[in-house]
Structures are given as C-alpha cells and as structure tokens.
Amino acid sequence: GTFLGLNFNNATTSGSTVTVPATPYVVTNGCIGTWSNVDLDFTSHLGWFANNGGCVAIAALPQAPASGPPGQAAALRWTQLPPGPDGLPWTNTPPGATPSLAVFVGADGRAYGLAVRGDGTELLKMDLVLLQTANAVVGGSDANQVDATNVTVNGNRVSALVYIPLR
To answer: Which helix (H) or strand (E) holds 132?
Structure first.
C-alpha cells in the first residue's frame, strides 16, 4: 500500500542492481483493500492508482530534482466508486490478476484514467483533472477523500466518472 516516487537522474549501478533516491507515500488507509495498482501519465505528471477494493486515486507527481529524492506527491485525491449502472458494487482488478489500469490523454488534451471492474463487465473512465477538483466527502476518512460524482464546474454539478458497459 506504500508507493515510491523514484528519481533516476542520479541512478547508480552495481552489477545487476540499480539504486535510486526514493520518497515513499501512502494514498489512504480509509479505503478497504491494499493499494497495489498504478499507472502514470507522463504528459501531465499524474499518478493513477487503484486498490484491491472499490477505490481509485489521483496524485500530481513532482518533477524530479537534479539529485536526491523527489518531493511528495501533491493534490492527492481518492474516491470510493459508486455501484455501476447494473447496481453491482465496483471492485478493481482482484489480487493475482493482471492489473487493468491505464492513463491516456484524450483528443481534448485532458488526462483520463481507465479501470476495468473486477468481473470484466464495466469500464471506468475518470476525468483526472475533475477528480482532483471534486468536492470533499463531509465526514470522510481523511482530508483527501472526494466524491467523484460531485464536482462543481462553473456553478454546475458534474461527475468526473463515466461507466461504460463491456458486455
């Protein structure tokens, strides 16, 4: 459940071992399931994370310094995903399965996170910028918990997520 920010600018090698400065960070302990899936959007410097339960997260990754460990991830936000349109609860890829998580930049220039529900019947498409600006969950587990279905844009409530049926 701990991720590492790595700086390869001053990597050293010894035989088959590469050593790099690292900065550990934790997404949250407020969501059931180990945080074990990650994909990176190098265009926007965003990390897209999923746990082995029903949560996803986004973080702005720092630029790597010339030397030493990178800074902490910023604008870290996580959300508990609501049930899909079929009413089934969302669960990310189960432990031991090939992680099904990806980030892409759309034709509109925005970064999106994708995840496949554990049973393979739903695809989640998350607007990562909207997730970063989603409204906090009142009484949430921590200050970084947001509601992906409650984002305010120009005074209007919108959702950062879209479910797409796969079958």
So the answer is: helix 128-132
- Residue 94 scores a pLDDT above 80: no
Q: Measured between alpha carbons, how far is 114 from 103 in angstroms, rounded to an integer?
A: 6
Query: Measured at the alpha carbon of residue 44, what is the angle toward residues 165 and 19, in degrees to the nearest 5?
Result: 105
Cβ contact 103:40 at 8 Å: yes
Q: What is the pTM of this model?
A: 0.89
- The structure tokens listed for 107 are 């034709």
DSSP 94: P
Count Cα neighbours of 49 within 13 Å in the Cβ-side half-sphere.
Answer: 29
20: Cβ contacts below 8 Å, ≥ 6 apart: 6, 7, 8, 10, 11, 12
